[in-house]
Amino acid sequence: MTDSGAERTPVALVTGANHGIGAAVARGLAAAGCDVVVTYLRFAAEATPPSLPDDYGTQRAADASDVVAAIEATGRQAVAIEADLADPAVIASLFDTAEEALGPVSVLVHNASGWRRDTFAPVPEPDGVAADPAMDAVGSRDRPVTAASADAQLLVDARAGALLMAELIDRHRRRGADWGRIVTMTSARVAATPARCPTARPRRH
Questions:
Q1: Kind of pairing, strands 78-82 and 181-184?
Q2: Cα gap 106→13, rounded to integer Å
Q3: Minimal CB count within 10 Å: which of 33, 76, 187, 188?
Q4: What is the distance in angstroms between the CA of the first residue and the CA of the last residue of the chain?
Q5: Contact 17, 38 (CB under 8 A)
Q6: CA angle at 160 for the pair 154 and 165, rounded to the nearest 5°
Q7: Cα 46 to chain center, whole Å?
Q8: Could you tell me the strand order of the sheet in which 107-110 lies?
């Protein structure tokens, strides 16, 4: 027996969907007829650079209850799950929870990102004292590439994306499904330079 998208309401899983692009995608999928699993990870509002709007920090610190309410207002179902995608153990549990609450996932949108502004370029150290790196127009600062900055990006953007796709594909095959969609995205600086190659990745659609 096959599991066709035409035989049931499609279930979409959208990561990083408590605000911004992810929230808009989740609402759009609901408007298109999907039930939606919304994943998110909260960050303390005070961790947001002071040059950024207060609303941005508030949104990053919020749960996904507003997104869930907006989806349910369209007549579709939604469930929110807070999850740190840098932990590979959470991947299978996301799909387990999704299946228990809404049914098998057939649409995956990996929008979450662990982007950090790091650089291979030297950070000035005048008079032997490390300088506070210059802040750019969006309130972030250059930092040297480190294991921590690389992990923050690669574990969420790359490894979690690969594991999410692998989990979806494995479950898709095992249940004999014949329809599905995968979209992955990541963050990048528009004016990236070679010195910032670690974060100069274009958004993928």
A1: unpaired
A2: 8
A3: 33
A4: 32
A5: yes
A6: 130
A7: 20
A8: 78-82, 35-40, 11-14, 107-110, 181-184
The answer to whether 157 touches 184, Cβ cutoff 8 Å, is no
Cα(193)–Cα(21) distance, rounded to whole angstroms? 24
Q: Residue 46, CB half-sphere, CA atoms under 13 Å: how many?
A: 0
Q: By three-state DSSP, how is residue 107 classified?
A: strand
**Of residues 92, 83, 86, the one with CA closest to residue 38:** 83
User: What band does 203 get if pLDDT is binned at 50, 70 and 90?
Assistant: very low
Name the average pLDDT for the chain. 80
Tokens of 190: 């528009």
* Count of all residues that appear for the chain in the document: 205
Digit-coded pLDDT (tens) for 111-159: 998 777 777 888 765 454 444 555 544 445 677 888 888 887 888 889 9
Identify residue 203 by its one-letter amino acid code: R
- Centre a 10 Å sphere on the Cβ of residue 128 and count the other Cβ atoms it contains: 5
- State residue 82's pLDDT score: 96
